[in-house]
Write a structure and sequence with these properties.
The complex is a heterodimer of chains A (about 110) and B (about 110).
Chain A: E1 5-7, E2 10-14, E3 19-24, E4 31-37, E5 43-50, E6 55-58, E7 61-66, E8 71-76, E9 85-94, E10 100-104, E11 108-113
Parallel strand pairs in A: 2-11
Antiparallel strand pairs in A: 1-3, 3-8, 4-5, 4-9, 6-7, 7-8, 9-10, 9-11
Chain B: E1 5-7, E2 10-13, E3 19-24, E4 31-38, E5 42-50, E6 53-56, E7 65-71, E8 74-79, E9 88-95, E10 104-105, E11 109-113
Parallel strand pairs in B: 2-11
Antiparallel strand pairs in B: 1-3, 3-8, 4-5, 4-9, 5-6, 7-8, 9-10, 9-11
Classes of the chains: A mainly beta (about 110), B mainly beta (about 110).
């Protein structure tokens, strides 16, 4: 079953604009991760935010987490055509001995046009 | 590091045939996950291993599905007999407990059952 629901399902913007994607989840989490998937490829990890963190930055990425609302957002600033991909949030169920059992959301398809 | 390696990249088979998907995780990773991705159901966790031992196979849809990990560098997912509804992209992912907790995905196997 899917833990996260992403919004919007699809987003089309112009190069240079910012893209914001939202993720809502249902149960308590240890951390939340965002992944990117290019067409026909596997998922690539972008950023991880822990449950005790509220905001995190990595290059042009900014992630926020609101555990009271069980929601997260991913902001991509100054988007580029190469950012065109699907973006997934994933919530973790920590495993005994470490490691993650991730449940993925439904994804947002981002298209960045020139 | 070559990353997670999956084979074959594409598989087309007829209903009733046996299908075997293969995965080589990143060396040193002690967790291995099998996911299935479809348009209707998104990314679903099928099974995961820790140190070659199957820990949770609750996501395996039916007895037709089986997975093995005979050693730390190889895992298989087998479907016997295959059915058209098994058509999907199957991903293998690995992770190293306690370091980053992120998953590294392979490029996937696109399975089509006719």
């Amino acid at each position: 079953s899917q833990q996260g629901e992403e919004d919007p399902q699809a987003l089309s913007i112009q190069e240079g604009e910012n893209a914001t994607m939202n993720c809502s989840y249902k149960t308590s989490i240890n951390n939340l991760q965002w992944y990117r998937q290019n067409s026909g490829r596997g998922l690539v990890h972008l950023i991880l935010i822990r449950s005790n963190e509220r905001e995190k930055h990595s290059g042009r990425l900014r992630v926020t987490l609101d555990t009271s609302k069980k929601s997260s957002s991913l902001l991509i600033t100054a988007s580029r055509a190469a950012d065109t991909a699907s973006y997934f949030c994933a919530t973790d169920e920590g495993l005994t001995g470490g490691g993650n059992k991730l449940t993925f959301g439904t994804g947002t398809q981002l298209k960045v046009e020139l | 590091d070559a990353g997670v390696i999956q084979s074959p990249r594409h598989e087309v088979t007829e209903m009733g045939q046996e299908v075997t998907l293969r995965c080589k995780p990143i060396s040193g990773h002690d967790y291995l996950f099998w996911y299935r991705q479809t348009m209707m159901r998104g990314l679903e966790l099928l099974i995961y291993f820790n140190n070659n031992v199957p820990i949770d196979d609750s996501g395996m849809p039916e007895d037709r599905f089986s997975a093995k990990m005979p050693n730390a560098s190889f895992s298989t997912l087998k479907i016997q007999p295959s059915e058209p509804r098994d058509s999907a992209v199957y991903f293998c992912a690995s992770s190293f407990a306690g370091v980053g907790e992120k998953l590294f995905f392979g490029s996937g196997t696109q399975l089509s059952v006719l």
